[in-house]
Specification:
Elements lengths: L1 E5 L17 E3 L2 E2 L26 E8 L5 H10 L11 E10 L2 E10 L6 H4 L8 E7 L3 H18 L5 E6 L7 H9 L7 H10 L4 E4 L8 H13 L14
Parallel strand pairs: 4-6, 4-7, 7-8, 8-9
Antiparallel strand pairs: 1-5, 2-3, 5-6
Length: 245
Amino acid sequence: MMTVARISGPRCRSTRLSSRAGQGRGPGHYDCRRVTASRGTQNGKEAQPPAAPTMQSIKCVVVGDGAVGKTCLLICYTTNAFPKEYIPTVFDNYSAQSAVDGRTVNLNLWDTAGQEEYDRLRTLSYPQTNVFVICFSIASPPSYENVRHKWHPEVCHHCPDVPILLVGTKKDLRAQPDTLRRLKEQGQAPITPQQGQALAKQIHAVRYLECSALQQDGVKEVFAEAVRAVLNPTPVKRGRSCVLL
């Protein structure tokens, strides 16, 4: 069960992010954390029952190379429809009430731009993040490599204690003839599930998942697991793999 509201303005307004977002525990280190359900205040009168607890909010930020399918993944999840055209994202924000394992949470979904020219703007969306979803395209080996060389170091540098999900997008292209032909001409091949699992283990992601927004396959599972990563946290062990490359 899920209700959705898009809470951002037009993409052209995305540069209005507050410059105070970078304040934290040091240069480039933001206040990223797991949250716990907050409780409503009691009236104080013995004759009245305590106030109902407020709904827990979870901030989920989706990152990865440009054109790997981050926006399609979010639109498919929130509208059950696949967008017909590609519109590069600068910054976008969605809100959805999602029920996972009998608990309903307010899931705030943050879409980000993967292009290099937005590197400084993108990190302004990281404060208060509860879970990251790092995406790569199964049909794009360079986007897979950039998880190791760019995306994991970036989120680990700014938010070292926040859980990460690793997601391989465009699962439908793994066996698509045109994709196989194009990659073969470049001496490449689609990323295998085993490669995805190996990378997830290397970056200490809580899970590795694959999905296809086009076929609406595995989309809901991605965000259900993102919620579980916050509601049922496991220790985050990053070690030396967090060093910026």
